[in-house]
Amino acid sequence: MLSKRNKLKVLIIDDIPENIEIVEAFLSLEPYDVITARSGKEALLKVKEEKPDLILLDIIIPDMNGYDICKIIKDDPETQFIQVLMLTGLSELQDKIKGIEAGADDFLIKPINRLELKTRVKSMLRVKSMHDRLVADRDRLEIKSRIQSILTAIIPTLLQAISHEEKKIIINQITGMVEKTLLDMYYFENREMDFAYAGEICAEVMNQLGGDFTSFMGETENSWIIKGTRCPWKGEEARKNSILCTLTRKIFLNIALKVDSDFNIEARKTIGNKNECCEFLIKIA
Question: What is the pLDDT of residue 151?
Answer without folding.
Answer: 62
